[in-house]
Protein 1
Amino acid sequence: MESLMIEATKYTPEISFDCNNHVLDIKGKSYPENTSVFYQPIFEWLEEYLSSDETQEVTVNMELIYFNSSSSKVLMDFCDRLDEAAEDGKKVTANWFYEEDDEDALEFGEEFQEELESVTFNLVEKAPDNE
Amino acid sequence: MEKESSIFSKEEEVLKSAETLLKQNEVDQENFLSEYKTLLKHYKKLLRQTKTVTRVSDNQQRKLNRILERLGRYVSFQLFKKITHEKGKLEIKTQRKKLTVFFSDLQDFTYTSAHMEGEALSEFLNSYLEIMTQIVIKWGGTLDKYMGDAIMVFIGDPEFTTDEDHALRCVSMAIEMRENMRDLQKKWYELGYQEPLHCRMGIATGYCTVGNFGSSERMDYTIIGTPVNLASRLETAAEKDEIYISHETWGYVKDKIICEPPKELHLKGFHQKILSHKVISLRKEGEDNIFAMNDEEKGVNVKIDFSKIPKEDIELIIERLGNELKSENPNPAETVSE
């Protein structure tokens, strides 16, 4: 199986799913013109990756600055799929990064934290950007 | 919508399966329970997701409203409408339009402000700009920018009516600003500012290039062109509490506004002399600036339009009349004694 790398665009996030190190990163903005078309290959990859029998630890990092409603639906499906995998015995840790003053991102992260039963879900406040 | 609905493909699949089951004549109870559990599980999930998305969407809506509210304070009402209502990309494009342009500033403000503390200065300036801005909004002007104590406004874009209307609204706005200045002067005096501040205003009408100027990163919606320079120069030429309008502006408002006779001015940046008119007041209905005397029996028929004749010319006429009287009656005192 090969890792999945998709570069960020103005409307879509950077996808870096590394199947060798078992780190899945989603970073950036997500308001694609067609959400299902953009996320379909990502879900297909995830399905294949999670269906393997390996029981290694998986780390998922989600750092989204802005996402539209359909992306949030897809993200919830994504997390639900991770939760199912964790229920089936995989050790999954999800890190939800949010900016200090981004209440929406924090609230969204809190929702996940509450709903996901088997995934270890961490809310991580990003350090202020000093650039 | 159809494309977007595919993010719900799983949910649609579950519904379809449940519907198919209901259509069957005989249903195995075990099978029915299994389908029912799946339906319930997905319904719960969907409810949870809907709640989350609704909450986040409401928050984002609130955030957007907050941003729009703040943005509205930094740009003119008209431009705000253009930004928020214009579909597609806001491109860097310009167009030629006949506009009426307005400039004002406070005479000697630089000197006055040098003697003021920062806090007092900002309070002072903000109270002045607040009142003037309300007047700009009232007359439908597009507030182009503040430059310290100076204000630049144009009328005719984005909302275009007629050239006459733009010019009249602009001059009416200036008159109202001047009237408000009197109240402000009183207020400032009572607040302890020794020197009363006075405004100066300039108005010009003509073709300008209007639109977005700048780079793709940062744009300014503004105007450029000769009327802009002219309005600015007329403002500089004006004295305390005076409003100077260009001859073209005057052409549009002459029936509604009383002005002094025109003056030719030498303005920086203009090679030819510029004819300008000093605004006196709005002309009330039935009121004009004409002196008329008509007595045919005595052979008198006089009509003087004070908005056209310079003061010097009237003085010359009076002098001439005086001379005529003297020449007809060289020694009136002697005549009386006789």
Protein 2
Amino acid sequence: MKAPLWGEFRSQKRKSHMLGPIQRIETPMHRFPEGEEVDYVIVGVGAGGGVVLQRLARAGFRVIGFDAGPFWDTERDWVSDEKGAHNLYWNDLRITAGQHPLAFGANNSGKGVGGGTVHWASFAPRLHPSDFRIRSEDGVGFDWPITYSDLKPYYELLELELPVSGPSYFPWGDPHGYPYAPHPMGGVGDVLIQGCTKLGIRVSAGGPVAILEGSRADRPHCIYRGFCIQGCKVGAKASTLITHVPDAIGNGAEIRANCMVSRIHLGENRRVTGVSYFDPEGREHFQKAKAVIVAGYSIETPRLLLNSACPGFENGLANSSDCVGRYLMAQAGNVVLGRFEELVRMYKAPPAHALTEEFYETDPKRGFARGFAIQTVGPLPIAFSKQMMTAKGAWGWGLRSVMMDYNHWAAFGFLGEILPNAENRVQLAEEKDQFGIPIAKVTFNLYDNDKKLIEYGKNKTMEVMWAAGAQEVVQEARYAHLVGAARMGDDPATSVVDQFGRTHDITNLFICDGSIMPTQGSANPGLTIMALAARVADCLISQGEKIFNSNERDMQRPPMRRDLSPPDTWGHGMPTFSS
Amino acid sequence: MAELPDPRLERSLEEVDLDLREGRFQRWLSLIAGLSSILSGVEVAYEHYKGSYSRRIMYTPVILSGALALGGVSGFFSRRAAKTVLPALSVVTLADGVTGFYFHVRGIQRKPGGWRLPIVNMIMGPPIFAPLLFGVSAYLGFLASFLRRSEQPDRGVLPRPAHPQHWATRLTHEHEPITWSQDLREGRFQKQMAMATVISAFFSGFEAWYSHYKNNFRYKVQWTPIIIAPMLMIAGVGAVKSRRAAHTWLPAVSALAMVNGGVGFGYHIRGVLRRPGGLKKPIYNIIYGPPLFAPLLFAASGFLGLLASLLRREKRK
Amino acid sequence: MNYQNAQGDRRPVDPRTGKPIGPMAQPGYYPGFSTLSQQKFWDAKTRDVVLDRVNNVPPIRFFSPEEAKLLEAICDRVLPQDDRDQAHKIPIVPQIDKRLYENSHDGYRYVDMPPDRDAFRLGLRGIQEIAQQQYGSGFLDLGPREQDEILQSLHDGKPSAGHEIWKKMAVHHFWLMLVSDCAEAYYSHPWAWDEIGFGGPAYPRAYMRLERGEAEPWESEEERYEWEPPANSLSGKYELVAGRVEHFGSPAQGGTH
């Protein structure tokens, strides 16, 4: 076929806001009048903010979600192109420092409704039970104020809401199964299976990923186009933009897109009163709210709190512990690349489709605490060229030559746990952004355990690549995923928020994103962030008005509200195994 | 009450041939319908697993094929079951297949690009004819319900009106001296069976074509079902037109298709074993390897052809 | 451009015959493969963006004409295209200029780097200073070997001159930014996709042959040919940037997971 039937695909002349080719937002969004006080303001509509927004709206609260970026129409705004997807990332300036500085932008940030979930590869493994108590078990890091069993029902719920596809039996951590079937894999997945099988390493094929294997309601089945991290135009890959935000809007929530929140205001009685923000035209407004939820992720959340310093909180809002901005973590994410005699064509199929967590737990024989996972990745040409630049030092004719072999390469991502350290932190820089708000300066160093873990894990990952039959194996150092910088804990002196995301210092100020995670494990954090957000939402909803008019801190476990899930959660997929 | 297999079941080849010609093979056709239903049931179970049973209705063919398998087996043992449960289940299964066909067409339409990208979306979408192919065993079950049992006493007796108890006869008004149900009952449905062969060969040949095309015809042998399917269809059409073709071409090509399906089954097993991880990933490799039972379903078309060649031609005009 | 023919043939070589290869419309191992020929299968938005990239080369607005000329010579070595004919060279400097003119970046800056705009201007000056110090003339007047030696010294993190400049910015960070920008401009172009056999945009139509590197019906099979970089180039072999074994000093972005 030289063309689709009836000619080339054209943009349709339609008014509705499209989220994928079928799903659309038909009803006009509710707008709260200027000056009206709402129940909740949520700053940032990403993984955490999107879920909590949807829950609160469904429970009948009046809620506004602010996002500094656009409210994407996936048909009109997104492209099936690597370079053209640049606007999905947080591209405002940040300064990166330290001996082992982090990269930002495409690596680990999102800007726009859906946040980073619009361009995550969507690996959605759970944390292991051991992740919640690494201080007690391994003498490193920090214990969570909750255990795995507190989060488990939320993991199960979110795996249905997204939903997550994967094997019916996932053997690591707390063994469990997935409600959607594993995906067919592309060449890279086959290479990982091949290598792991050779070495006798157990490996999970075809998931767990939050990509539809089987269409669900108005979201189509995955078409294996490999552009997951450029934004899924198909709507098969879950993002809060398409899974939770439509339901929030349907229940009366307002999304204020392209609005940058610059400051949280503190009123009397150590309570916040609302936020200042810049509208798309750059005018500053104040939005009054009975409570504020910050969900800006590990850089913007501490930045906003630090920028909201005021009398009584000179070091930053809710920062009496001096922990805001500290204990920032990134996962070690070295990319291991192998060249094969046969063609691989790694641009086909989702980059995320197979992994092993065989090395996840602490093994005293290895000489370091905690562990790592090995996952598939599928860099497209630009990303691959940069990997060749660092992994091989390629430039000039060497770069041209190795790029002509693009289709012969496969890539694995090593995902290693870096331990929290107080000196890995977010601070404010001298420089200011386009709104005049001081930008973030991030300092990051690797410490002894981290270095040993990376060395071991990198070598193990390369071993798997060799075992799969590669002729040449190279690797580049890299980080994946941020978490931390406003961690949760029981002790107000060493943490920023309690187990329900409520700041220890201010009873109507909450944080609900990856920054509250005290440690990170070797699992991609997206699912955990969403599960935590659903738990935070249950707490807010069960306490109701008390949050708005009392400084009392109720630490009772809230009942789980399964009835607040988006409606498409139910009636699809398969029964799952749960231990 | 289940009848025990009659000692008279042990008979000479000539007698078996006579039984077939005279429609006295209800037991065996019931059993075959049941067994083929198991095959297509397993196939639909893992194919729908690949679709995550995302719609509840996707469970129905799995449940029905299990029921039909039971129905077929009980039809083997009990004449009453063969006349009641089996046809009822068969009709429900056929209806389910047609419903499934609708949903598969719709599923292709709902893929990005929909029917404007017919080839890619048929290959990557729900298999369009699979639900109808699934109806083949139901068709066999339905046929079986009309037949006679070899131990039945009316052997050699002149044709008589159709068994009045069969409820399906009430669906049509039958006034002709020799009715369609009577033709069936007496093994005179060669043309019908030849037509069924044509349809089944088309469905399974089409599936073989696009799934081998998806695989880029990596092995030359992948062309064989694509070549044999139209041959079988032509032979089937020929058999409808001419008695001679029904006794020469049809059985020859049918046998070829059955052999081909058997060989294909072997290749598909090998394909599954050769996948990364091999037997260490049995379920994954079965669902994403070459479809194990598809060649057997292709062979089943050949079986229909072979059966047709052994039958008598319809009397009713 | 006078430097083009300064010293020796800049084209890659066929090792069997010793003869230069090209210039040709489409280098690479996928002859006849054209992603642009598939544009009717792309969604409208993607088609607009990609065609705009191909058809509307942005004008030079940030760099002065002299700077642009110098950068062009540098990019011609960082990402040489001498095997491409004139009509099929992929514009690189205009894309870098556009990025700097719009002041867009990847969302972060190393603490040891000035803003990207300043970094490029400083880097150009630094390269000229090395050229003057080592060869007593401007970069533009040098032959390919000398030009590559200068770039190789940046790659190795050992520039022979311009130390004032490299105090203001880390040389390997500048080098990586320069190569990244060139690579991004080149490998975001459909002609480069054709060269390396990448399928290009894939929506609404995507792929059906996911495994074993099999080609879609509209893709091409690989047909390899032997070639070597020209003898007067230094960039044909691989050495780690700045000789570093561990690159956490400049972590990469791509291949997110």
